[in-house]
Amino acid sequence: MADQDESRATAYTTLALGDDFRHELEIKRSRFITVMRRTSNEDAARALVAELRKEFHDARHHCSAFVLGPDRVIQRSNDDGEPSGTAGIPMLEALIKRETLPGVTDLSDVSAVVVRYFGGILLGAGGLVRAYSESVSAALDSAPLVQRRRLRICAVAVGHHAAGRLENDLRSAGYVMAETSYEPTATVLRLALPDEPTAIADAGERLAAMTGGTSGLQLLGTEWADVPD
User: Fold this and answer.
1) H-helix or E-strand spanning residue 153
2) Torsion angle in degrees (nearest 10) through CA of 134, 136, 141, 147
3) Contact at 8 Å (CB) between 60 and 87?
4) CA 163, 165, 167 angle in degrees (round to 5)?
5) Residue 74 burial (CB < 10 Å; 0-12/13-18/19+)?
6) Rounded distance between C-alpha atoms, residue 37 and residue 111, angstroms
7) What is the pTM of this model?
8) Which of 69, 59, 67 lies closest to 91, judged by CA?
9) 213-229: b (≥16 Cβ within 10 Å) or e
10) What's the chain's Rg over C-alpha atoms?
11) The predicted structure's pLDDT at residue 1
12) Cα separation of 50 and 65, whole Å?
């Protein structure tokens, strides 16, 4: 997968960290058990399928779909014995077409597996498509989601005597502070800003106003982080 720091997207939506999310539907006596996990690469996504094959070893099908990366360039699906196109693709479409905000479809780093126990009643191709799509969609309706954002780490060097007050002012203004380091001649405060030109420019102007133009921002690297609502 391409380096996330080089992605076009600077934010996307994913599952909140924690245990696998599970949801079950019964459709015409067949059980559809959806298991979703936050995954950052293909190996992790395929590991989920392997784990569930062992856990639900007596199930007939373990269909899967996953979408990975901030730009969602990796998209895979598998019908696992269901008629071609009736399981994996509907599951994948339920993931990639999911609106996380009105008009926004940015769900990624999510793997979904639907385990099916056949109930003895044939659903037909159209019924299977609806069942697998509905299974993932219903799971997403109650799954815990979170926005993940690329942050630009910026440093500002300030005299030791003024560092505490400036840090308090920055926090009060709503900025997210990262690690602070202490050099022989200055304290280096670090801010985590949205990796967007306007956000960085606004922070630079605010900092200049706070320090009377004596301190400026130094742009460092980037890191991805979950951003609470």
Assistant:
1) strand 145-158
2) -150
3) no
4) 65
5) middle
6) 5
7) 0.84
8) 67
9) eebebeeeebebeeeee
10) 23
11) 39
12) 13
Residue 98 structure tokens: 């999911």
Nearest-CA neighbor of 78 among 108, 56, 46? 46
3-state secondary structure 88-144: HHHHHHHHHCCCCECCECCECCEEEEEEEECCCCCCHHHHHHHHHHHHHHHHHHHCC
Name the phi and psi angles at 96, rounded to 5: -75, -20
At 120 the pLDDT is 86
| Contact by Cβ (8 Å): 177, 171 | yes
- 189 phi, psi to nearest 5 deg: -90, 145
What's the start-to-end Cα distance of the chain, in Å?
28
Q: What is the DSSP string of 2-57?
A: --GGG-S-SEEEEEPSSSPEEEEEEETTEEEEEEEEE-SSHHHHHHHHHHHHHHTT
How much is the pLDDT for 140?
97
User: At 145, is the secondary structure helix, strand, or coil?
Assistant: strand
Nearest-CA neighbor of 69 among 117, 113, 108, 95? 108
- For tokens 């202490």, name the residue: 182
Regions of the chain short of the pLDDT cut 70: 1-5, 229
pLDDT of residue 5: 55
Are the C-beta atoms of residues 88 and 70 closer than 8 Å to each other? Answer: no
Distances (CA, A) of 20 to 15, 36, 158: 9, 6, 45
- Please work out, in degrees rounded to the nearest 5, the angle formed at the alpha carbon of residue 103 by the alpha carbons of 108 and 44: 5
